[in-house]
Design brief:
The chain has about 500 residues and is an alpha/beta fold. The protein contains 15 helices and 23 strands. This is Amine oxidase.
């Protein structure tokens, strides 16, 4: 009676269909040519399978986390059958080096720019070959290479800079000393009363510039960031940022090419169906109706895409996972690249930082007459809703306030990571109410250890929001998946 109710029939799956790899978990678990009784729904699933789309592991997303996971699986013995599927027409995710917009020998990183926390323990360290053109970035320090200007372009004195830095340090001390047993509040709420004691308008503007370092690092505003989780994204690891001459995106792309990782581009996964029977494969369906099947799936898509529910899960994700996705913050940091016919600023400068309420931080590339402006948080969201022309007009009006002889730009490029359908933001942060438990929940596997997670937002126990965060997360999760596939 039970078999009849399930509409069971007798089928003979082909060996070529199900035995794709000598190490395939499907092979090991007797998915072999044999007579088996299965339901009609499962029969249809099996008949749709082919040698091209059955895997032990499908990695969704070819950003740093997915790449790191693939590298880890590749060096395992035996090697599981796996593939990376990527929605974009390129690898790298939010690490992407543009080599065509400006001069050929001036690559620009539209997303991540630095290898943060550069040290031997950094998972990217082993992939990097040192060059005499490598550069450690100290632009956010006082020195001859950085110009600090008031909003009208007048140079800020060392005395004002020192006093403002001292006040900002005291405000940061208030944040660090916030009682752990009190309810979490925003960083702004924590410092507001003390901040309002600053009576001098110029001094307040320079203090704002110092506090803006926090906002740019976290890609969010002080009124959204958690006081209790202040500085937790670096996990107490000293910041040491390396800039690569050919671009970080190029570096990541070369890792994929050098290791011959199996990647399918232009593959937009829209649906994931997880069967209740753990012996049945997970089915992934793409926007163009292709299907993939695997025992395990590793989700490495950005947190912004998870928040936007770009992938539909059947059954739905557990409530604790949905809560973690909602609770974690996704920040926005955009860049505006401006190329001019000439260099009108001091050519020895690497940075121009201004006490403006809008356009504060410019990096200088005098050899190609390029300025790079960083904008974050609410301002970045505002600019993303404007046309290029509107944004460029506003920025040039300000630049000409501080440099009256500045010409009109001859070329520009503006990133819009918040509108990017494969990102919906720049990188994660810890808003009010988020804790390390939030990150742990984001990293934890679900559906009986079949759906796994990695990314810069899910690096539990490590740094957050950086490329090395994603790489570390991908390595660790791949090891976890391998242990599921081949338990000791």
């Amino acid at each position: 009676m039970r078999n009849k109710a399930l509409d069971n029939i007798l089928v003979v799956p082909s060996a070529d269909t199900l035995k794709n790899s000598p190490h395939s978990i499907f092979y090991q678990r007797n998915w072999l040519p044999c007579y088996i009784l299965i339901s009609s729904s499962v029969r249809k699933t099996i008949l749709m399978m082919s040698t091209e789309n059955v895997y032990d592991v499908v990695i969704i997303g070819c950003g740093p986390a997915g790449i790191a996971a693939a590298l880890e699986l590749q060096k395992c013995q035996p090697v599981p059958r796996f593939i990376i599927v990527e929605a974009r027409d390129r690898v790298g995710g939010r690490t992407y080096t543009d080599t065509t917009t400006f001069v050929a020998d001036h690559p620009i990183d539209l997303g991540a720019r630095w290898i943060h926390h550069y040290r031997p323990e950094n998972p990217l360290f082993v992939h990097h070959s040192s060059s005499d053109q490598d550069k450690f970035d100290y632009a956010f320090c006082h020195g001859d290479e950085t110009a600090f200007l008031d909003e009208d372009g007048t140079a800020l004195s060392e005395a004002v800079l020192t006093e403002a830095e001292k006040i900002a340090d005291n405000l940061c001390t208030l944040i660090k000393q916030y009682p752990s047993d009190k309810e979490d509040i925003s960083i702004w709420n924590c410092i507001e009363n003390e901040y309002k004691k600053i009576s001098d308008e110029r001094l307040r503007r320079v203090v704002d510039m110092n506090l803006a370092y926090i906002e740019h690092y976290e890609a969010s505003n002080l009124d959204r960031l958690s006081t209790k989780m202040y500085l937790k994204t670096d996990n107490d690891i000293e910041t040491c940022d390396l800039t690569l001459p050919t671009g970080l995106g190029t570096f990541i792309k070369q890792i994929v090419e050098r290791n011959h990782l199996p990647v399918q581009l232009k593959t937009i996964v829209t649906d994931i169906q997880i069967p209740s029977n753990t012996d049945d494969p997970i089915r992934m369906t793409t926007q163009d109706h292709r299907q993939y099947f695997s025992k395990h799936v590793l989700i490495t898509v950005p947190l912004g895409c998870l928040k936007a529910q770009s992938i539909r899960f059947t059954p739905s994700l557990p409530e604790w996972k949905q809560n973690a996705i909602e609770q974690m913050g996704i920040g926005l940091l955009d860049k505006v690249f401006l190329q001019f016919p000439t260099t009108f600023w001091d050519e020895k400068l690497e940075g121009i930082f201004t006490a403006s309420s809008r356009f504060r931080f410019f990096l200088c590339h005098p050899q190609d007459h390029i300025l790079t402006l960083f904008v974050t948080g609410k301002l970045a969201h505002e600019l993303e809703q404007q046309t290029d022309e509107q944004t460029i007009t506003q920025i040039i009006e300000y630049i000409q306030r501080i440099f009256p002889d500045a010409p009109q730009p001859i070329k520009w490029l503006i990133t819009r990571w918040g509108c990017d359908p494969y990102a919906f933001g720049s990188y994660s942060n810890l808003p009010i109410g988020a804790t390390t438990r939030t990150v742990e929940a984001l990293s934890r596997e679900c559906f009986d250890g079949r759906i796994h997670w990695a990314g810069e937002h899910a690096n539990y126990g490590g740094t957050l929001g950086c490329v090395d965060s994603a790489f570390e997360s991908g390595h660790r999760t791949a090891k976890q998946i391998y242990d599921y596939l081949f338990p000791k």
